[in-house]
Protein 1
Amino acid sequence: MIGFLRGRLAAKQPPQLLIDVGGVGYEVEAPMSTFYGLPAVGAEVSLFTHLVVREDAHILFAFGTERERRLFRELLKVSNVGPKLALALLSGMSVDAFMLCVEAEDADTLVRIPGVGRKTAERLIIEMRDRIKNLGAGSGMAPMPGRPAESSSGGAQAEAYSALIALGYKPAEVTRLLRAVDASAQTTEEIIRGALQAAATG
């Protein structure tokens, strides 16, 4: 199994990344929590990975910290939670915020994540109650620091729209969330962060 990648960030279009490792391009999917810490395209990056093998595809998921990957793996053990939903959960809230939701039995916050219904939220709270103890404070290797790549507002809006659709939000909901984003947000990552914050507050 591939557990770690270090190489040049060749392309990023949430939720997909392309990492050039010694001339081999690895296509990976990453949560927005990882995207927020990525350097500009062309810089070196280090990411933890998890390989999901399906009958029709092998999909590599990447994470900025070991703690994120650990939560992703624990989520996959929950009934009816697949990689897409686990990625949406990690994109919608931090590891600490998720732990607080489980500890406080806060299903209302969890159901704001696309794909998480009331029954799934309650199942997450029950099944993750003991597993979150394994997450701890954790110290993982973060991606190399760097300045976010600049992007025109129009292009960034379009990329943010596509990313939110990929995370499971419906088109009408994405349009509403993007309208709620502060006008000062310029990069794709800033726009998505603002939209996800708007989703979290209802």
Note: The chain has nine helices and five strands.
Protein 2
Amino acid sequence: MLVGAMNHPARNVIEELTWMVAMELDFIDLTLEPPTAASWRVDAKEIRRALDDFGMEVVGHTAYYLPLASPFEEVRRAVVEELKRCLDRFSILGAKWMNLHPDRYAPMHDRNFIIERNVLTISELLPVSRDCGVGLMIENLPGDWNTVLQLSQLLDPIPELGLHLDIGHANLRVQRNVTDEILRAYGSRLRHVHLHDNKGGDADLHLPLGCGNINVPHHLQLLRSNGYDGTITLEVFSEDKHYLAYSRDVLRRIWDEVAPLAAPVKTNVSSPQAACFS
């Protein structure tokens, strides 16, 4: 299991990497978004050299507010081009996976329209994803893309699309945390995990582990039972890095303590392998 954190998009990526290395994290969950870490501003080759020097791995993250399902075709096409550029940058960086946030904002359009537009956008990205060797995965989001049924509307029509499970999101706007159900249905497609605490309801608080009502040992045990041993990003958002360091220690301790519930289910965590376009 590898523990990482996300960079602040308003700060220099190399400087963000430096404190992560000092905290003895294993990877950076690199979000390519404005104002400072935008895909058109970062120097991917410089970051790759820093990653190699530091011995750090990278997971690809994109802006959560990109309108993948925009009813304005010119806007949707611009999103596709931006995400293609992100794939190119992540290929240079050596990332195996890049996440997408399913869109949910198309006023006065029904859900079928939103599903179709999301599927269209993701499908148009797949050829570039294959060429770059950077797989695509979708993150569960509170409210609209946070149940097995909702996620199935994108995962089922696109078999090569991976799952990016956010356990904190799975605790929001639901009667109970839906991590168990999502893993039962799509655990074989799990590629990456976000972990942070909250108190349920609507507030995505991004608290340190143990400060909310999420049963962290239970969910880590579920991951281990599913055969997962990959990347886990601690999304603990605070200027005081002690909270992140504490959560890192809690995560590593619990991971070592919990045992799988049963014989693990094998998951396919391989990534596409190919050279990216220049």
Note: The chain has one domain: 2-257.
